Each structure stands twice: as structure tokens, then as C-alpha cells.
Task: structure prediction
Amino acid sequence: MSNVRVGIVGPTGYAGMELVRLVAGHPRMTLVYLAGSGARTGPLDAHLPHLHVLADALPPVEPLDVHKAADLCDLVFVALPSGESGRVAWEIAQAGLDRGVKVIDLSGDLRLPPEAYEAWYGRPPLPREAIAQACYGLPERHRESIREASLVANPGCYATACALAVLPLGNLLADVKGPIVFDAKSGVTGAGRAPKEHLHLGELANDVYPYRVGQHQHTPEIEQALGGAVRVLLTTQLLPIPRGILVCAYIPIPPDEAPMVYDRYASFCEREPFVRLLPDGQLPHIKAVNGTNECHLAVRWDERSRLLQVFTAIDNLGKGAAGQAVQNANLMFGWPEREGLNLVPLWM
Amino acid sequence: MSNVRVGIVGPTGYAGMELVRLVAGHPRMTLVYLAGSGARTGPLDAHLPHLHVLADALPPVEPLDVHKAADLCDLVFVALPSGESGRVAWEIAQAGLDRGVKVIDLSGDLRLPPEAYEAWYGRPPLPREAIAQACYGLPERHRESIREASLVANPGCYATACALAVLPLGNLLADVKGPIVFDAKSGVTGAGRAPKEHLHLGELANDVYPYRVGQHQHTPEIEQALGGAVRVLLTTQLLPIPRGILVCAYIPIPPDEAPMVYDRYASFCEREPFVRLLPDGQLPHIKAVNGTNECHLAVRWDERSRLLQVFTAIDNLGKGAAGQAVQNANLMFGWPEREGLNLVPLWM
Amino acid sequence: MSNVRVGIVGPTGYAGMELVRLVAGHPRMTLVYLAGSGARTGPLDAHLPHLHVLADALPPVEPLDVHKAADLCDLVFVALPSGESGRVAWEIAQAGLDRGVKVIDLSGDLRLPPEAYEAWYGRPPLPREAIAQACYGLPERHRESIREASLVANPGCYATACALAVLPLGNLLADVKGPIVFDAKSGVTGAGRAPKEHLHLGELANDVYPYRVGQHQHTPEIEQALGGAVRVLLTTQLLPIPRGILVCAYIPIPPDEAPMVYDRYASFCEREPFVRLLPDGQLPHIKAVNGTNECHLAVRWDERSRLLQVFTAIDNLGKGAAGQAVQNANLMFGWPEREGLNLVPLWM
Amino acid sequence: MSNVRVGIVGPTGYAGMELVRLVAGHPRMTLVYLAGSGARTGPLDAHLPHLHVLADALPPVEPLDVHKAADLCDLVFVALPSGESGRVAWEIAQAGLDRGVKVIDLSGDLRLPPEAYEAWYGRPPLPREAIAQACYGLPERHRESIREASLVANPGCYATACALAVLPLGNLLADVKGPIVFDAKSGVTGAGRAPKEHLHLGELANDVYPYRVGQHQHTPEIEQALGGAVRVLLTTQLLPIPRGILVCAYIPIPPDEAPMVYDRYASFCEREPFVRLLPDGQLPHIKAVNGTNECHLAVRWDERSRLLQVFTAIDNLGKGAAGQAVQNANLMFGWPEREGLNLVPLWM
Result:
């Protein structure tokens, strides 16, 4: 039953083109509307030759018309730059209110309370009612609310990878007294497709470096996703590869809980369709989840330092963006969570 | 009707693991047998974590047993190193003769006449009858014979990319008086997965270089695929990327044929399900065909030099190996040629 | 005797920063003036942390003042984008005329006759007298004129690599009847440092593709460097690496000259301080000349196709830009040609 | 006064070839002896074409002869694989005892007490007297002993980058009560040049992953370098680039010391010729120290988590191997510490 009509706003950006790929392969979705805010209109595969194989399934890219989006679609993904995306998502949600249109925004605009947004993004927030209406779309934490939501704020890529490293702790999190350190590394598509000097291959090839340390806007998002009870240090580092996030979380759990903690992770991962606990002795590879919505996770108690160490790997455009958005759509429409998301990565 | 039982010999090599991915996603194939010649046995995803999502569909890897392969399977892909692969394919084909087992060998062992094989591979050839029985599996040239074949020699990656640049000329090829130059570049997976110093990332990163120039074993294969009428210079060059082949062919067609040549390419590509003539002004990107069985092709007449210039891009593991093997299987079983091969690449 | 005072205009671009490195290490040069046309002023190592080790030897970057450059310096390198660079070089040359200031422009602005420039660059040329005064700075061809010149047009990177593949033919070039094909591949710094979408690491990583084929502005430059007697087809292709050019030239020499051609290359390379003929059986690696002014060259007669095949590898920022500019400066000042250019590459 | 005669054992490995480059450029050293333990003998540039420019300064590579090394050389660098290197270094040191030959071993064989070596390297240790004689060569901690030493155990690459992040704390280290976490990432040359599957470019390109976590043999070396008073968690991660180490250290100093801690780092770095404290707001780039002996360091107090965060970047083959070995040699011979080490990196 492939009859949910889908629109994508921003299909030439990195998250947007990934959404096109996922929606085109989803058995219950039909792509009916593609709209951009820029100059790239017409056949999508004229801009993105790898999508030619989908050409017959792709509507032409049009200049964005919020009302048309709300009229044509049952579901709209909005994947524009932060600062523009949330407003568009909110406008479509309002325009489609009576038709019951569902909207998922992939930007950071609807994820934080207005005060936190202004402080961390350095830009005026959207109206409080917009933010209040948006449900934070981390299925592993907010599954039930997402099912009921009509407007979802899709989580950030770093925030997803960090939160998934800690959420399996469950109520043990309350006993974590010290700060949690997230040492996180990301491929370059996390920075968007707009050309900037530091993203030039001549600059980034052969380099790795930290950036925005202590100031990254995903910091408050992680603290919020963890329930607000822990202090977090997020170290963000840029990798000279297109995709993927690897996080190492250092968590000071009470040492006497160490023997039981592996079971907590195991049972969490058993319940969660996209979080996989790696067999003992294996550690996650960024590459092993490329192009998918999977999260690979490894956990170990380090007796030497008496710290719990958790690794997570996701695709920043998969579980960190487009994949998670489709997972959220599956929840919003009451479908199986893995519908359209049984994706097999390339190893090289 | 997913009832053709498939075996893959060599599933931990680069072509083999790609076959696993393609067969697992093919609507008419069921993977029933995985066998290796080396030490890697047991669950395949223990060696290849990215395949975990397929774990339920994967039989364990066993030490190769030719008779078991011939008994269990309707179709066997053999993807071992050259020198070993053809012999195994031939043995399975013989063992499965009465059951009508179909075998596709991805190595170079069954592609050339014995004398040429010995000269270019520097190694004794397989028995003449084995080679005689094998059908050279380039669908764009031998489609009808492939449909009837029970043993197929899947073409080489360079040979495929080069032949596809010239085959659209059709009978005009007879008027090409001078040599055809193929300046070809390949990603590193074309060299196989066995560790060698020159494939070490520390060696190859940031480098590009020619190798085996004038001595590459795909040279006679190309000449044979083009009907033996032209002299060929194949320049092979190694790229510091995992996948993809880009070929630029320089063809001295008679200049007065130049005005009509584009139409020849257009009508060839219209007939061929996997060869796409790019719109005027576009040139192929290796990336745009990654993970697929597509060949992107651009053709231009260069008035300055009076040479026809043709670019082709394929994935060396797709149309250059596993993808083409599945295309051949589709022909051998009488299925639509694109069955199981509507693959959408990642752009990054 | 380190008393030639040097200025560099454009020190934050790729060729410019390489000039800084070379000039700072040159025993007869002292860096006295750094000027940019953009917003980056002040200490150079604030923009380029890798140059911190030179901080004491670096004058601050100032907004460009043509007269100051002409007053302070004995030698000025101008490495601005084409369209701006040649004009600045010409103005400095004029302003420094009575002081005998020498100027080397690294752009394409002064390399071609006005008509050719306009046709290939699509932009109005500089005054005919400026172009007439500039000496084309390919030492292997114009050594004597460079020694006398006060204004040098430093050759293009592709043009250098292509010309060096053919110049050793000497008067045999007159017997080359057919076109010469140059299949050329370049690292991304050849495209400059200004951010553009196609240079984004997310776009270019894992990709290789041809561009501007038959339209590249180095085409007429190569034909001119070869004396105007041959037709040339230049295929330019972008590599996902920072540096390096690899050219394969296919040259239809008269077959009866084949036995003697290796000696022509050997004796040319013996005379030339920066062109190295590789030992028989070796082929050039881009990496082996990175960061240097060397050109590695291999030549082979291909009996099958009856074509002479010549490979050259240079660093597009070395022999293709900054290194060659310093070589030209050495000639202009009457110093040994390798002065300051005994550079040892990193292998990885 | 270039009269110290130098031998290098293992010149075709990654650290060895870097030593060749550094020694050849050192104003007080002359390379007189090159010896390998494997099959690569004869002219070094036959194996390493980038070293051709040094050909006249390179003795041929010979099969190793310990006594010849001790007779010919005043100083020998030994850069063989761990397990073999320390024994060779010890033998040369003994053979050259009366001549006062100085030996620097770049392996891990002489860095740890025998018991720790056996536990972490899983291999029998060298004789206790060998280990006792070797001076651990971290100049920032053992400068005075190195000056007197005739046998130096050059530190490990991770150990150097980690120790340098903490040593500036000085006596404050005694007040660090909790564990220090080192989240460390390294380019692939740290794993040596011997071919292994996981170092294949097809495997490692586009990937990043942790390995040997909690088991890396540099763990006890770091604890020892820090005086044995702190517990350490070392997370080692492999990067798809040739060179460079980036470490982020998380250090639980007493919060009331935070205001003074920057000054400790500043004064340490002022004294140290190769450790550079980056200006406030800058963070280190791996690339900025490539090919050099520099260490770039940034320090920040994170008020949110109340942790001191220190970043260090070094070249694993520079300050992490060959560069540091030359720095140690400078100390052993009483020369200025930066002699021969004023190296300027390439930015791309």
C-alpha cells in the first residue's frame, strides 16, 4: 500500500538527497513534491547524476510553495539550513493543519527551548508555540509521543550518537555523579553542502582537528535528551571522510554497578530495532553503518580508570538525519519501524 | 518467485561480498551456500560487520566442497583469485552437469584462449575444453549466447569499461584504421583484498600512478571483445579510492563519419539497459555509478585532433564484476535484465 | 649572499603559500614584503598555522600597494587569481622599471597572445605591450630569454607537465604527423583555494572525473610551448587528492624513429636539472615529486599500437607553479638553477 | 662541522625513511651506513623513488652487520619492528662500547621494565641490563639523562602525544585524583609498513574505528612517563590518513587550580623548543605539524564539566618517531636542540 504522498524540501542538500533515496525505496511512500529554496530547479538528476536511475519516480524540483506542499502531501520532510528550515516546517504544518499533514524538520530550529536556542545558535528563535508543538524525534526515548505527533524535530547527528551511548543506562543515569565526556568525530557532510574554505578537499584531506569545542550547539540538545540530569562535555572533531560519526563516551558510573551494566545495554539493544550491541571484543566501524539507519554500539568497563566506556557509530546522514527522519515517519504512520530501512551498506 | 538457490564461492573477497549484497537483495534468488578456500568460516558477518543486517539470510561460510555446491545450488558464482577460480568453476560445472547447474566465474581464467592466457597471465591455462565451454559474459555483445550458457566467464573490469566505449560504433569499427588508446584509471579494490605493500593506505593515499602498462592481462581480452580487428593500447593507472573505473578512449574514426557517430551511441544506449549516454555537456563521474551495475558514457568528437573521445565510468565491482555477474544470471534464467539491479548509489 | 629582497603577492593562496615556504628556505632570498588583495592581513601564521616555524622571517601581510612592492623589492612573485594577477604584475613591473625590479606572474594572464587569451579565458586581455614584454617561463625551452627577462609569465601546471613530455623529441617533433593526446589528471589545489561546491571534500572524495575537455585554457599554451606545429587534445581530469599532476602523452612518432627515441629523452634529461628519466621499467608516482620542483618522466615505445607513450609527473604547485617560479628567479639572477630547490618529498 | 657519522638500520620502514630524510638534511651528520634486516638491499632510491634527489648522499643498503655498524658509525638509529629492534640496538651498543658509539632505538623494546614489557607486548623481554642501560628519550622530561646516555629508548608516538598534554601540569599532577582519559587518533603509518588486510586502502578509506582499547602497549609507557602517579585510559583510534596523531586529554584537576593552569602550560611551552601553545581560540590541526618535530598544544578549562581539556597534535613519524630521535641525538652530542629540525610542513 504505497499511498502516502511525500514532499521533500531541500532535496539537493546532503540530508535531502539522502531522503530522496530512502523515500524512493520505501514501499509505502510515493514522492510527489520536491522543492528548493535556491536556484536549482527542474529535474533532480540534472544536478545529481547518481539519481538518474530514479528519474521516473522524481517530480521536478520547484521553487518552494508552502501551500502547495501542504495541499499535495501527507508528509513533508524539510531539510533546509538551520535558521530557515524550522520556519518552513512550521508554516507547512500550519497550512496543512486541517488536512492532518505531518511534517518532519531535520534542522536544529525546533529542538530547543527558545532561550537555549538563542544562546547556542546565536539567532532569534521561532515562536514559542512552534517549538512547543514540535516533538523531539528520538525514537529510543520519545517513541510514544512521536506516534502522536504531527510536527517532529528530528535530532542532530552528534546528539543522536551521544544520547544512544547513554540512554541504555536507564535509571542508573541518576547515579552518574560526574560529567560525561563525549569525544566525537564526524565526516564532513555533517557541515552541509554549502562551499566553505575549510571544507575544500585541499584543506581537509590528511587533516583531523577539533572545532567549536565547548560551544557546539548539540551540547544542550544532548543534555536535554538525557533528561537534564548530567553535565556534558562534547568534543567535536572533523574527519577527512564524507560520512559517519564515531563517539566515545566516558561515563563515571558507580563502580559497583559495573558488573550489571552490560546487561542493561544488552536488553536496551534487544528492544531497539536500530541499535546493535556488538559481540564482545568487537568495536564499531564508521563504515559498517554507512548509508543506513543503524547504530553500532560497544560497551566496556575499564577497570584501570574505573570508567564505563561506550562507543557508538552512526551515519550522520542516516541515523543522524534522513534515516532517523524515515524511522520517525514510520512511527507517525503506525508502520513497522524498519519499513523501508533494511539498508545494506557497501564495505568499501 | 524467489526460488533459485544460489551459492557464492569466495564471499569474503571484494567481488564476493558484493555478490552477497546483490543476491540477498534479488527477488528471485535465495542464498543457500557460502564457501571459502581459506580460513574464514562461520557466520559471514563476524568477518564483515556491515552485513549483519542480512545475518538471517546468510548461510555460514564453509570450506569449499565442489560436490555440495553442485548439489545444493541452481546457480553458483565463483569469485576466487585468478589461477584458482576458473578451475573451481569448471569442477562445479562438471559436477552439476546433469542437474543443469549454472556457473559464473568472475576470474580471468576462462576468458581467453589457452595460448593467450598462458602468455598474458604467465601461468598454465585450464583444459581447452573448459575454456571452450565457457561463454564470455559481456551482455552487450554476447547476449544471445549467454542466455544459452551454463558456464559463463564474467568479463574483467577494465575490459568491460573499455569495450563499452567502443562497441556502440558497431560496423564502423571496421573503418577504424589506427590504434585505439584506452587511458584507464581504477580504484584499489580491482587489485583484490589480499594485503600487499603497494595497497597499504600509507603508500597509496595521495598517490596516482600507472602500472603494468602495455602488459596488462585485460589487453587481449579487450581486443577479443572488440572482435579482434583493432590494435589496442591499454594504460592502467591506480587511484587512491576504493572503487570505480574511468576510461577515456581515443578512437581514430574516419572524420567524415563524425557527424553521425553520436546517433550510433544514442541508439546503442537506448537498447542497452545498463549503458547510459549522458546528456550533451555532461561527463561521467566515477561516484555516480558506485555500488551499481550502470555504465555512464559520454562521447565527443574533437575537431582539433580529429579523434573521437569516449568516456565510460563503471563500478569495478558492479558492472566490472558482481553486478555484471548478476546481469548474466538474469539472462541465463530468462529474467528481466535489471531484476535485482535497480541500485541507487550514495553520492558521498 | 642572501640579499635579494623578495615580495609575494597572494601569500594565502595555494601557490602563494608554497612560494613563502620556498623563498624562506632559499639561501639568497630574503622575504621583505607580503601583500594580499583580500581581507587576510596581519601575521601570516595566524591564517596558516603550519608556517609558525617561519614566523620570525615573515613580514606581516599588508593590503597590496604596487608602488611599495616596486620600491621595497628586487623580485616580486604575483600569485593572484587569473584576471587580476597579470595586471598587478604588469603594474609592479612598470613601477619598478628604473630600479630593475624583476617580476614573475604565476597566472595565465601573460602567457598567450591577446586574441588567444580572449578566446580561451573568455575575458578581455591585458594590453598587448604587457603581453609582449612578458617572457614565457619554461626554462627547458626558453632558458636564455628568461635570463634576460624582467617580467616572466610562469607556465601553467598542465602546460608544464605536457610540454615536458614532448620537448625531448626536439626536431623529431616536426615529423609527428598526427595529433598528440595528453591524458592529464590533477590534484585539487590546481583549482585554487576559493571554496566551490565541486571542491568540497564531500563531493570530490571517492570521485574522479573529466572536466572542460577540449576547452581547457592550457590547450593553446601547450601548442605554443611546442612551437605551434602539432595539434593537441588535452583531457583534464580531477583527482581527489591535494597535489600532483600525472600526464600520459600518446605521440605518433614515425615508427622507424622508435629505436633512437629513448636516447633523445636520455640526453635531454641529462642536461635538464629538474627532469629525471626514470630507470627502465619504472613508472612515475605523483607522490614522489610532491613538494618539489622535480619532473619524473618515463618513456616507452608501444609496438602493439605503434605509439610513443610518455608519462610525466610533477607537483602542480612545485614544477607547476611555485617551484618553477623560483627556478625562473634563479635564472633571472644568474644563480645555479637548483639553488634553494633541493627539496626532499615526504613519501606519505 | 658535519662530521658525526650516522647509520640507520631499517631505512625502508616508515620511521627509517623519515630518518634518512632528516639525517641527510642535518648540518652536523653524514650518513655512512644503511642496513636492513630484509631483502631490500642496494640503492635506497630504487625502492623509494622520492629519495632520488638524495642519491649521492646515500650509501647502499646492506644486510645488517652489527659490528660494521659499530665500527663505521658514531651514531646509529635502529628502526626495525618491535621484538627485533631493541636486540639489534643493544648489540650495536655493546659492540661499540669502547668507541663510544651512541645508539637510539625507535622500537618499544627498551622502554618498559621487563615485567611490564612481557605483560603488554606478550613477548619475552630483553635482558634486564639492556633495559636498565637504556635512557627513556622524552626530552621534555629526561633531558639531562639523555645528554649523558649512550643508549636511548625513543618514546612511542601515542606516549609522546599523551605525555606532552600532561607534563606541563608539573607538580599539580600530584593533585589529580581521578583517571586521565586520552582519546587518541592516529594516521596509519603508526602501524608500520608491513602489509596487513586492515591497512589496505580498500578497507581503511572512509573508515575510522577504535582498536586495542584498554590494551594498547603505550598505556604503561604513558603512566611511566607521567611518574606513575595517575591512572590512565588510552583510547586508540585509526584514521584513514597517512600521518599524524591528535590527542584529547581530559584531566580532572582540582577546580580551584583552573585559573592558574593556563600559565603553567604557557611557561612550559616557552621553555620547550618543540611544544607550542596555540594562541587562545585556536585548536591544533594534525596537518600543521606534518613532517616536523613540532607539537601543537591547546588547553581549555571546561567549566560545564569541570575538566581540563588539552589537545596535542604531533606527526607520529616526527615528534612521535624520527624527529624525536634526532632531537635526542642533538642532546646526546651537545648540539642545539633544533639543529636540523627547522622543518616547514606542507599545508596540503
